[in-house]
């Protein structure tokens, strides 16, 4: 039916790097990543319902003695929002989102010793529920603001060090924490012929958390652009930038604290944009 509109990109990217007597160093490696970004939009009269699914999983084979097989990409993100138009381009909206990963993550030491587990499915996970106002100046563009937003962070792995690194107070004896605060979300889903651009920015800050003062925003920004040619071939660029005020990361000097996290995946492979 014409009230339903689908868009997105799905595909499989692969790349290989080979070096012989390369003075700058490095390792021969092969990486494969499967990904999918799908948007479903229903609009009729004063009602609007939009759902987005973003998944990716990738592995790398590195030509070295230890830790030859390593995880390169891994995420699962789901978001849905239902709105009622009370004015032109303005919607009273209920929004719900969830994100985690599929598989465990390790800190690859490259020494042959057991690699520490630093993440897993539901460790962490983030569940967001909010009510707010959604402004849609264009069908492919929206801005959402909610002063009534809740976030539940979980770490189901019984590891106090890991739970502390995700801001969960282990003294409470619970594998989760709940925050109440303010959230803002901007979203772009643009398609022109064989070009597809999808991006989302989510900001969240709690009102009452002692560990995270109001105004210290958690940031989650994803961007993807793809171009399809020869019907089945696809070139894509995907980036992800994160900053979580209560997520503790150890840098190369051993300093522990919140850090800006960034990842970029550029690939050519089999894909389909719609």
Question: How much helical structure, as a percent, in the residues?
Answer: under 10%
Shape: flat
Order of strands in the sheet with most strands? 1-2-3-4-5-8-9-10-11-12-13-16
What percent of residues are in strands? Answer: over 45%
Query: What class would the helix/strand composition place it in?
Result: mainly beta
Mean pLDDT score: 91
Helix segment tally: 1
Task: Provide key terms for this protein.
274 residues, mainly beta, 12-stranded antiparallel barrel, two-stranded antiparallel sheet, 1 helix, flat
Describe this structure in words.
The chain is an all-beta fold and 274 residues long. 2% of the residues lie in helices and 65% in strands. It contains one helix and 16 strands. The strands form three sheets. Strands 1-2-3-4-5-8-9-10-11-12-13-16 form a twelve-stranded antiparallel barrel. It has a two-stranded antiparallel sheet with strand order 6-7. It has a two-stranded antiparallel ribbon with strand order 14-15. A hairpin with a 6-residue loop joins strand 3 (47-62) and strand 4 (69-87). The longest helix is centred in the middle third of the chain and has 6 residues, at 160-165. The mean pLDDT is 91.
Structure described in brief:
With 274 residues, this protein is mainly β. The protein has one helix at 160-165, and strands at residues 4-17, 29-44, 47-62, 69-87, 90-100, 105-106, 117-119, 125-138, 141-154, 176-192, 195-206, 218-229, 233-243, 249-250, 256-257, 261-273. The protein has a 12-stranded antiparallel beta barrel with strand order 1-2-3-4-5-8-9-10-11-12-13-16.
